[in-house]
Design brief:
This protein has 424 residues and is mostly helical. The protein has helices spanning 2-24, 29-35, 46-57, 59-83, 92-96, 117-122, 137-154, 159-168, 170-180, 192-209, 238-245, 249-255, 279-287, 308-314, 319-326, 383-390, 394-401; strands at 103-105, 227-231, 271-275, 297-301, 338-342, 353-356, 362-363, 370-376, 414-420. It is globular. It starts with a helix and ends with a strand.
């Protein structure tokens, strides 16, 4: 009996040691990120010192952005490692968007990396009725890093100039370097925002490299993936997908913020990001979900007075999409004909954050909950029409879409509308 107890004790000791060894091998995400730091943080520059003091005077900022970065940081860090880039680049979304994938700037930039529409197009990001790749976690990260690598080649390996160009644009920094006759960022005549942006980025990198020295407590986070890209095989209603995964709609949209509508896009690749802990459950439930039941549609009974244009306007969709879904070869429809229309009943309520980097991420959300509608301008539609439909003002529409006052709306143009949710 004593020998059995002794043997059991030995096994327990061995088991405890193995558990300790396994636990000690779990890396902290911040330790991993710091090990990838390669840049000179120019800590002796007075501009950087000033920004270090600013951050230390606002410790809540570091805590907030670190917490918001948690779901995405492993992926971003892995992509940086794969490309052998400076780890400091993972901090750029902290300054750009506070790691908020729904952040939308006053000048039209969107997503974690605050990519402008034209830049997104140049980088091959889809921006259509269904999907905005600038907000997609994986697509935007790949595009932003590709853009930074290209800028770094343009500026001959000078990462500080590359970061400045990411903020102000390649042309602005190139012209400043040419007119100033120097590649020393601190001697260049750059936009005021960039004069703050670069030293603030370097200050944040310096603090993150030595948090204990600056008495900053970073939240502990194991260096392991939070999500996995899964193949869904066909278009799916996002509410349905969330249910299959056993997660909330909010959690699903945080990982898949690129989708503009209530469902994934009807074209390839048919993929979603799902929390790793829920992937097995999602695949099991998906395998038992018939393909024809994965998307919700509204059935519209055509009236004598209807046209495809009026139906598209009624449901805030496009004539092209209605024709495609119903396999119509032309614009001809007949009374009592049944058309399938994309249903917006499950449209997720997404947060809206308008950010101003000049104020270093001071976020101004619209009061009350709002949801984002992408409206396709129909023939003969005016600002007055949109004001009546959405209960918003012409001034807001112009501001949200950076339109020129006095210029009429053009047919087919996509407009962003932030519509308030009715309070019950």
């Amino acid at each position: 009996m004593c020998k059995k107890i002794q043997k059991l004790s030995i096994y327990l000791v061995i088991f405890s040691i193995s558990l300790y060894a396994e636990a000690s091998q779990i890396l902290d995400v911040w330790d991993v990120l710091r090990s990838e730091f390669k840049m000179n943080h120019e800590v002796n520059r007075p501009e950087v010192q000033e920004q270090i003091r600013w951050i230390l005077d606002h410790p809540g900022f570091v805590t907030k952005v670190c917490e918001k970065a948690e779901p995405y940081l492993y992926h971003v860090t892995r992509e940086i490692q794969r490309r052998n880039l400076p780890g400091e680049l993972a901090l750029l979304p902290m300054i750009e968007s506070a790691y908020d994938p729904f952040a939308y700037s006053k000048v039209g930039a969107a997503g974690l990396w605050q990519i402008m529409p034209m830049t997104g197009s140049e980088l091959g990001l889809i921006q259509d009725w269904w999907f905005d790749g600038r907000r997609s976690i994986s697509h935007s990260t790949n595009a932003a890093l590709t853009h930074l690598v290209r800028l770094n080649k343009v500026f001959n390996g000078n990462w500080i100039l590359s970061i400045a160009a990411y903020d102000a644009g390649e042309g602005a920094i190139g012209r400043a370097a040419k007119s100033g006759g120097t590649t020393n960022f601190w001697e260049l005549a750059v936009p005021k925002e960039t004069q703050v942006y670069v030293p603030r980025f370097l200050a944040l990198a310096e603090i993150m490299s030595k948090p204990l020295a600056y008495k900053i407590n970073l939240p502990q986070k194991a260096f392991r993936p939070y999500f996995e890209e899964v193949s869904i095989g066909s278009q799916i209603d996002l509410n349905h997908a969330a249910s299959l995964a056993g997660i909330s709609m909010n959690e699903l949209t945080k990982l898949n913020p690129g989708y503009n509508r209530w469902a994934t896009a009807p074209y390839k690749p048919f993929t979603l990001l799902i929390p790793i802990a829920k992937v097995t459950q999602f695949y099991f439930n998906l395998s038992h979900s018939p393909v024809d039941k994965r998307v919700s549609w509204t059935k519209h009974l055509v009236l004598p007075s209807d046209s495809l244009q009026s139906i598209a306007r009624q449901y805030h969709t496009t004539v092209t999409l209605i024709k495609k879904l119903n396999r119509l070869s032309d614009h001809g429809i007949r009374p009592n004909q049944v058309l399938l229309i994309p249903s917006t009943k499950n449209t997720p309520v997404l947060p809206f954050h308008e950010i101003s980097k000049a104020k270093f991420l001071s976020q101004t959300p619209i009061k009350g909950k709002v949801y984002r509608v992408i409206h396709i301008v129909q023939p003969n539609e005016t600002f007055n029409t949109l004001e009546r439909v959405y209960k918003v003002t012409m001034e807001d529409i112009i501001k949200w879409n950076h339109l020129t006052p006095g210029v009429a709306l053009s047919y087919g143009k996509q407009l962003i509308i932030w519509k308030k949710v009715k309070q019950s």
